Please model this.
Amino acid sequence: MSAQETIKNQVTSHKVVLYMKGSPDFPQCGFSANTINILRACGVNEMFTVNVLENPEIRQGIKQYANWPTIPQLYVDGEFVGGSDIVTEMYQSGELQKILQP
Model:
């Protein structure tokens, strides 16, 4: 399976998917930590996370998949939401909480 097929399968098989550096308990960059904290503040207890530092093909492939150059990247219901800055803005406006509701 190609990196693009793997990514498509991941984002369509889970409600909330975060491609990040590190893990939710041990984020390896401030932007990933910020995004995890926001998701937790929104009450997201179940999310599928991918540590891109463990897989160079996924790390490069996710940038191509959404045509977005940075990590972290958040997907909800198979749709690309954005990176840390966009997630922060959406959280502050209340928009993120709406799309994360079950």
